[in-house]
Amino acid sequence: MAYDSRTNKMRRQNAVGMDELVKQFIREMRLSSGLNRQRVDDAWNQVSGASRYTLSTNFVDGTLYCTLSSSIVRNQLYFQKDFILKEINGFLKKDDLFTWDWDGKGDCVKVLVLK
Prior knowledge:
By secondary structure, the protein is an alpha+beta fold. The chain is built from four helices and five strands. The protein has one domain. The chain has a three-stranded mixed sheet with strand order 3-4-5, with helices on one face. It has a two-stranded antiparallel sheet with strand order 1-2. The protein starts with a strand and ends with a strand.
C-alpha cells in the first residue's frame, strides 16, 4: 500500500517480488557496472580454477584481462580459452545478480586475454 497525499488515503499497488525490487534498486542506483565486474571476477574464479594463480582481473567492453603468476597455468588455460569463455558466459546467464544491458542473447565475455 502507498499513501496518496491528495486524497489522504492509502492506495493499493501491485505487489512486487523481492528479486525484482533488488534488480530495480541496482538499476536506479547505477550499481550494475561495478556489480557486473565483480560477478565476472567470481565467474572466472569458479570456472577457471586458477584463482590461486590469478594476480588481477579486469573486465572492459566484453574483454576479460587476466594476469597470472604462473606461466605453466597460463599456457594450460590458453589451450582451453574457448571452453572457459563458454563456461563463464553460462555461469553469468544463471547468475541472478548479473544485469544484462541487452536482451540477454549473445555472450557477455567475448574475448579472454591471458597475461
